[in-house]
Amino acid sequence: xxxxxxxxxxxxxxxxxxxxxxxxxxxxxxxxxxxxxxxxxxxxxxxxxxxxxxxxxxxxxxxxxxxxxxxxxxxxxxxxxxxxxxxxxxxxxxxxxxxxxxxxxxxxxxxxxxxxxxxxxxxxxxxxxxxxxxxxxxxxxxxxxxxxxxxxxxxxxxxxxxxxxxxxxxxxxxxxxxxxxxxxxxxxxxxxxxxxxxxxxxxxxxxxxxxxxxxxxxxxxxxxxxxxxxxxxxxxxxxxxxxxxxxxxxxxxxxxxxxxxxxxxxxx
Length: 268
Ligand SMILES: [Zn+2]
Known about the structure:
Blueprint lengths: L2 H6 L13 E3 L2 E3 L1 H33 L1 H13 L3 H18 L15 H19 L4 H18 L5 H14 L5 H10 L8 H7 L4 H12 L5 H23 L1 H19 L1
Antiparallel strand pairs: 1-2
């Protein structure tokens, strides 16, 4: 056997002596290597096709992303909160994918269109209020996150004023679980919160009486028109009265007696 003949009988991939070598990609290879190489090739092609398909789906989703936002809004209005959260979160995820961002790193700077930034504000506004209802620590975490995002997408915009009013209304009528966070948010957007001024001046902000009055206002008074008119009037008239009460021990005592008997009449 000549040296050349021996060489020709060797697989150029693994070097093994083998009969029945075949050509693959300009190489003479054994049957095992041929199978392996074909498998590799197939895997590569498959992987490339899968990636291309994935990118097509992503691009298609990105084009239709507004539909997720709309579906979320509709679900929210129909009080189907699970579907709302799902669609809102899909919308945000599609945006992050579109901009090739890590989760949670979307900012207003990524948007050329003010309209879509406004949409983001609206979505975070809904998500924040949904998770305000949550009872476990995980939901509180989500709530904090969405509130932070809402502030980011709303501060120093032309629609900040609209949300200041929405916030004031929500704090007043919405009976928020995280009231103090919402008040802080309102302040961060340059707004001033309403308070139960007279009760606060008389008893202090955290007193049982103040809380009872707040609950009464939120649960009963706001239910009917006259109650709402009373509250609106009260908010205009009460700060100067509260400031007088704050300065006088006599007025504080008088106010205490009056409010306590009012609570007795209302609540019992
Ligand atoms: Zn081989």
